[in-house]
Amino acid sequence: MKSIISFLIFLLIISCKQSEQKEAITEEQNQTQEISKVEENIPKTFTYEDIARYTMAAIMDQSPKIIKATKTNDLYYVSYTRKSDNQKYEYKIKFNGNKILWANIDGRWRNSQYDEKISFIENDDKLNIIQIYDDGSEYIKEYKKGE
User: Fold this and answer.
1) Which PROSITE patterns does the record match to this protein (predicted)?
2) Helices and strands (H, E) in the chain, number of each type
3) What is the pLDDT of residues 79-136, one digit of tens each?
4) Cα–Cα dist 105/45, whole Å
5) CATH architecture, domain defined by 48-144
């Protein structure tokens, strides 16, 4: 009887170890897929500075030609001077894959459930900035390199 119980415990331990190994392999595969997805979203034609400029152009309905972007650490600082009243506007942007998060230079990040979700898709020499609002509606603005 003791040997049967010992054998069953042995089988249970082996089964648990195999299950843990399968979970570890699955987790490693998931991480590899996530890394691949992020790498797929790395811009090829456009720089992150370009994407930051075009993002603010789309959000603020301004010409990307008047918008400047610079990188400091992991943030992109974007600014422009509106021609109609000569007022200067400044923003900050950060990227997570193809997701874009922005804020006024001294304001809050637009990441509440009610803020629009912004992303980009690059396709050859075209860049789409996609804004999805909390009501499900979306606005897509397409730019060509050099605009």
Assistant:
1) PROKAR_LIPOPROTEIN
2) 2, 7
3) 999 988 999 999 999 999 999 999 999 999 999 999 999 999 999 889 999 999 999 9
4) 27
5) Beta Barrel (2.40)
